[in-house]
Design a protein that fits this description.
Largest sheet: 6 strands, mixed
Radius of gyration: 14 Å
Number of helices: 5
Shape: globular
Distance between the termini: 41 Å
Strand order of the largest sheet: 2-1-6-5-4-3
Mean pLDDT: 95
Helix content: 25-40%
CATH class: Alpha Beta
CATH architecture: Roll
Protein name: Nuclear transport factor 2 family protein
Number of domains: 1
Pfam family, one: SnoaL_2
Organism: Amycolatopsis iheyensis
InterPro entries: NTF2-like_dom_sf (IPR032710), SnoaL-like (IPR037401)
CATH topology: Nuclear Transport Factor 2, Chain: A
């Protein structure tokens, strides 16, 4: 069941529809990415989003403003154990500055009551900085 919840959430993320995205998170959800990651730096944002509204704003507004076209996510593995789901993926896109983006990610989703409560995101931050800032 937890695997299906996360698969559904990925479809909602891709919609960039704020209401659909909000429905998959608990109100007190958190999303933690590596401090100083290129996306947070370029957007002047934080690497630790606290609360559903902050996460929804990022996924519905900021993400499509930064990753402007050709966004593709290739899932290499999805592993579920109870209320925890680990996703290994590669994301590619064209950035707002015209640069090509391709990076590998590992995301750990923690669920509560059938919704996402916490996401821990891991990526190659040095590679991200090279693609974003040249």
């Amino acid at each position: 069941m937890s695997r299906e919840i996360v698969q559904h959430a990925w479809r909602e993320f891709a919609s960039h529809d704020a209401d659909r995205i909000a429905a998959v998170f608990t109100e007190d959800a958190e999303w933690l990415a590596p401090p100083g990651n290129a996306t947070a730096v370029a957007l002047g944002g934080t690497s630790h989003m606290v609360g559903r509204d902050a996460i929804v704003r990022f996924l519905a507004v900021d993400f499509p403003r930064f990753f402007v076209s050709d966004v593709a996510v290739t899932v290499h593995g999805m592993h579920a154990d109870g209320d925890r789901v680990v996703v290994e993926e590669t994301m590619t896109a064209t950035l707002a500055n015209g640069n090509h983006y391709a990076n590998d990610y590992c995301l750990v989703f923690e669920l509560r009551d059938g919704r996402i409560h916490r996401v821990r995101e891991y990526m190659d931050t040095a590679r991200g900085h090279r693609m974003v800032f040249g």
